[in-house]
UniProtKB/TrEMBL annotation:
Protein name per UniProt: DNA topoisomerase I
Molecular function GO terms recorded: DNA binding; DNA topoisomerase activity
Biological processes per GO annotation: DNA topological change
Organism in which the protein naturally occurs: Psychrobacter sanguinis
Key words of the record: Isomerase
InterPro entries per UniProt: Topo_IA_Znf (IPR013498)
Organism lineage: Bacteria, Pseudomonadati, Pseudomonadota, Gammaproteobacteria, Moraxellales
Domain DNA topoisomerase type IA zn finger: 3-38, 41-79
Keyword Isomerase carried by entry: yes
Source taxon at top rank: Bacteria
Gene Ontology CC terms, in alphabetical order: chromosome
Amino acid sequence: GFDCDLCGHPMVIKLGRYGKFYACSNFPECRNTKAITKEIGVTCPICQKGQVIERKTKRNRIFYGCDRYPECEFTSWDLPVGRF
């Protein structure tokens, strides 16, 4: 696991309306949450700084986006493969 970047308490996996997510164990004092993501080992083709991660929509559809969002708004329905 990892600690909350706002208060330092451990983050725990919770199940919500749209699936699993990380939430601070110090709830309700701290309401920090993070989406569960999966790195795919590809550098973002737009900003060249972030990593492309796999995420899910509220309807459980997989898409790919830059982990620097909202600074970089790269998204794709197709799996990016990196440079050749």
